[in-house]
Design brief:
Mean pLDDT: 96
CATH architecture: 3-Layer(aba) Sandwich
Number of domains: 1
Strand content: 15-25%
Number of helices: 7
């Protein structure tokens, strides 16, 4: 069975066609570079509307059976940035360590990292991870947390994702 990974770019302007969806495409490119296990991508671009985001994350987790959903955008302090709230609403358990590590990583690049509100959580057998909306920041943040993602998916009963060890080393205990 081929794994499915959801990528959800959250942007009012990209969803309206005002500019191209480079953050979501950058995220897909990284996943394709790092993951060697065959997988399909369930891809959407949505505006910063909490009910739409919640419904789409639920669909990706419960209907499309994505083992991982990665969101890009909507994690700042602006009034329309509601991705963390939507994520928390659909998750059964939050994993605050993801957001903590991403903010700590971003602080090496920008002092405004403290404004970021990325989080992660679990819905059923799906890990949901919020990333910022800029391609450079997506790479920096995903590089920081990705080593733990395949093992987390193992722990929640998802498919085993293998990585290209030449470009991304993941962690699994020796008995895994």
């Amino acid at each position: 069975m081929i794994a499915t990974i959801g990528v959800l770019n959250i942007s009012d302007r990209a969803s309206a066609g005002v500019y191209s969806d480079t953050p979501g495409q950058a995220c897909v490119a990284l996943l394709r570079e790092w993951i060697t296990t065959p997988f399909e991508v369930d891809y959407r671009v949505l505006p910063d509307e909490r009910p739409l985001l919640e419904a789409e994350m639920i669909r990706m987790a419960d209907v499309a059976h994505c083992c991982l959903i990665v969101t890009t955008g909507g994690t700042g302090p602006a009034l329309r940035d509601v991705t963390p709230e939507a994520t928390a609403a659909v998750c059964e358990r939050l994993l605050p360590g993801f957001g903590e590590l991403m903010r700590a990583t971003s602080l090496h690049y920008v002092p405004t990292a403290i404004l970021s509100r990325q989080t992660a959580g679990i819905r059923g057998q799906t890990l949901i991870v919020n990333l910022p909306g800029r391609p450079k920041a997506i790479r920096e943040n995903l590089e920081a947390v990705f080593p733990a993602i395949p093992y987390c998916i193992d722990l929640i009963g998802g498919p085993r994702l293998e990585a290209n060890e030449a470009v991304m080393k993941v962690f699994r205990p020796k008995e895994s």
